[in-house]
């Protein structure tokens, strides 16, 4: 299979190590991966702010870069969901390409679980390789990934929703102890442009989310969206906490 690696603009600019970890992980799992050099923002910030009509150039550029791949894989649940739901072309030909891309774009843990159907990982605990006890990891299940992509069960619903795909993969990593949180699927408050327009509410929600992890003495907070992790990382730094923040790709890669 031929995979196009979709790296959101904020990952490229602020967390390039996440892009590298994602590429390495996919290659370790036997995938042939290509990185289209002309990719840029998918248009999600504009769409979330009510300006989807101005994101046509982003759509066209995304289609030019990713049409023709068997799969498009990204280390960001929110950007993946945006493409799944909102990518459109502007004529018959590009709209057909957009429809095909929407059907084969996957968030990283979703792809590893549902397409590759991985049952074991070569990952070792690389965060603290000389630890004498397991690394206590708190998993932040971001809203887009959970309620949009259905990466994990939702506490407000009853019935069988399957297992958390990120949690299932983390449990395959030697030296990692996945911690049970009090409110495992609560929003961190980032919300894209929400954190700019409603910064006080966003910050309070983030502090509450971080406090849950701290109560359980985690060493690392992880998740599938660097945007949520960036929000919580900023709070941790202001609190002068030693808790680290890592994208899930950095824990799964060997």
Automatic annotation (TrEMBL):
**Could you name the domain of life of the organism this protein comes from?**
Bacteria
Q: Which Pfam families match?
A: CCG
Q: Start and end of every Cysteine-rich domain?
A: 4-84, 137-233
Parts of the chain that traverse the membrane: none
Question: InterPro entries from the entry?
Answer: Cys_rich_dom
Q: What is this protein called?
A: (Fe-S)-binding protein
Q: Which organism is it from?
A: Fibrella forsythiae
């Amino acid at each position: 299979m031929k995979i196009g690696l979709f790296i959101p603009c904020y990952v490229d600019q602020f967390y390039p190590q996440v892009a590298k970890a994602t590429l390495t992980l996919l290659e370790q799992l036997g995938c042939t991966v290509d990185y289209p050099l002309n990719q840029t923002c998918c248009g999600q910030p504009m769409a979330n702010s009510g300006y989807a009509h101005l994101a046509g150039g982003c759509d066209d550029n995304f289609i030019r870069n990713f049409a023709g791949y068997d799969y498009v894989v990204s280390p960001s649940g929110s950007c993946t969901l945006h493409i799944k739901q909102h990518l459109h072309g502007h004529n018959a030909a590009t709209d057909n390409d957009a429809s095909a891309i929407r059907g084969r774009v996957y968030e990283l843990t979703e792809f590893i679980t549902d397409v590759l159907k991985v049952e074991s990982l070569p990952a070792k605990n690389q965060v603290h390789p000389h630890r004498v006890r397991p690394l206590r990891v708190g998993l932040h299940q971001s809203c887009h990934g959970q309620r949009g992509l259905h990466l994990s069960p939702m506490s407000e619903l009853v019935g069988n929703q399957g297992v958390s795909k990120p949690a299932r993969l983390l449990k395959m990593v030697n030296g990692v102890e996945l911690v049970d949180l009090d409110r495992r699927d609560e929003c961190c408050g980032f919300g894209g442009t929400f954190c700019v327009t409603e910064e006080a509410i966003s910050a309070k929600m983030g502090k509450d989310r971080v406090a849950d992890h701290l109560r359980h003495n985690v060493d690392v907070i992880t998740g599938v969206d660097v945007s949520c992790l960036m929000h919580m990382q900023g709070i941790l730094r202001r609190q002068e906490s030693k808790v680290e923040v890592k994208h899930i790709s950095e824990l799964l890669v060997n």
